[in-house]
Amino acid sequence: MFRMTEPLVVRGRLVQPSAVVDDGVVVASGGRVTFAGSMAEAAAAGLGPDVDRVPPAPGTYVLPGLVDLHNHGGGGASFPDAGSADEAMVGVLEHRRHGTTTLLASLVTAQPDVLLRRAAVLAELATAGEIEGIHAEGPFLSHRRRGAHNPADLQEGSADLVRDLVRAARGSLRTMTVAPEVPGVTGPGGVAEALTAAGVLPSLGHTDGSTEQAEALIEQVTAALAGGTRGPMTATHLFNGMRPLHHRVPGPIAACLAAAARGDMVVELIGDGVHLDAATVRSVFDMVGADHVALVTDAMAAAGVADGRYELGPMSVEVREGVARVVTEAQAAPGEGPIAGGTAHLVDVVRCAVRGGVPLVDAVRSATVVPAGVLGLAGEVGTLVPGARADVLVTDADLRPVRVLRHGVDVAVGSDAVDIDVAGA
Q1: pLDDT in tens, 96-143
Q2: What is the pTM (predicted TM-score) of this model?
């Protein structure tokens, strides 16, 4: 006799966008959430027989699956260097088992033919539903604020290269980091116009530009996105790879903060205790609000694995005590090159932000609802509401993963969470 499958039930302290429900429950069926709320509400909805079979779990948090907009790899695998979808999938699974159920796979600056080949590889994973899409970080970036990007591969803006990359990615290119002062990026016929015409979000970053140059890009993109379902545009890892904020020469950071405050931008923050001081992260949340902040990892191949030497595109990277830096011939001693991405998982970044003083609901919202909205996936991922994909992260009281579900199916959980001490950050 056919017997219907029982619904999936998860209990714990449910983290919703504006509050934590101490005795919370999530019910899912067919890979979709059917209920999320308190036990009292579940009982009132007639779900008592289903939820009563699962014991309370007051020592755990129940979060939506996390959404990472900026991720170069993990588990020893580098998305910018992956020669096959299987190789890239190693990085996807490294982050998925730590609760990141939706991510963009990020490329780095490289020669055009390399970018096109790598985009074609990652497009396979996007088509299969393993990643949400591709983020191209470069090659239209500032030489002075290039960070870990190969200077020989930086170039002026090319709308033709944008269109080639869109074709190679087979519609899966979602975002591209650009510097507004690079010739050919803004204005008619430029990169920003080509990106928005193709449905790709420009992201302002790796820039030594002025406030006015940043404002010009923001204004152009905001006008192009008006009335659409995706966006707003983003700032790639605010502060990092940017001209520093100065009271007489404010640069791009002032423009980004102002745009975020008025709702025209979402600013990425690598709140991992390495890229930014905890007070900086906390202050940005206070200034622009959690709805305009996206916590990201900027993770590279070393996320979740041991210190050592790694490749990030054409650049060699050394990781010491979890900090990744470019190896350069000019550096006086090992470990003094530019920071080259992160080694944390997004749940580690959330935990670091909370330890640094960001309210839990705000930190979680900026790692779920906000990036999902940037991608035009509001109500689909990054949230636990009826009809959403049943992506669930269950953590212990210290925000360490104990269970991960994607499409309502259990994912093997990682136990090598990065314990970042923000006290001395």
Answers
A1: 999 999 999 999 999 999 999 999 999 999 999 999 999 999 999 999
A2: 0.94
Instruction: Spell out the residues 6+ positions from residue 154 whose beta carbon is closer than 8 angstroms to its own.
Output: 109, 138, 139, 140, 141, 142, 143, 146
Q: Which of 352, 232, 356 is nearest to 296 (CA)?
A: 352
| Contact status, residue 206 vs residue 180, Cβ threshold 8 Å | no
Measuring CA to CA, which residue among 120, 103, 130, 95 is closest to residue 401?
A: 95
Supply angle C-alpha 246, 252, 255, rounded to 5.
100
Rounded Cα distance, 8 and 409, in Å: 9
Question: Mutual orientation of helices 159-168 and 112-127 as an angle, nearest 10°?
Answer: 40
Predicted local distance difference test score (pLDDT) of residue 414: 77
* Residues whose CB is less than 8 angstroms from the CB of residue 413 and which lie 6 or more positions away in sequence, other chains included: 97, 98, 401, 402, 403, 404
Helix pair angle (251-261, 211-225), 10° resolution: 30
Q: Are 135 and 70 in contact (CB under 8 A)?
A: yes
Cα–Cα distance, 401 to 421 (Å, whole number): 18
DSSP code for 81: G
Packed helices 278-288 and 251-261: angle between N→C axes, nearest 10 degrees: 50
Q: Are 335 and 318 in contact (CB under 8 A)?
A: yes
Instruction: Specify which residues 319 forms β-bridges with.
Output: 308, 324
Question: Within 13 Å and on the Cβ side, how many CA atoms surround 97?
Answer: 15
Q: What beta strand segments (E) does 188-285 contain?
A: 201-204, 233-235, 265-269
Classify the phi-psi angles of 176: left when phi > 0, otherwise alpha if psi is within -120 to 50, otherwise beta: beta
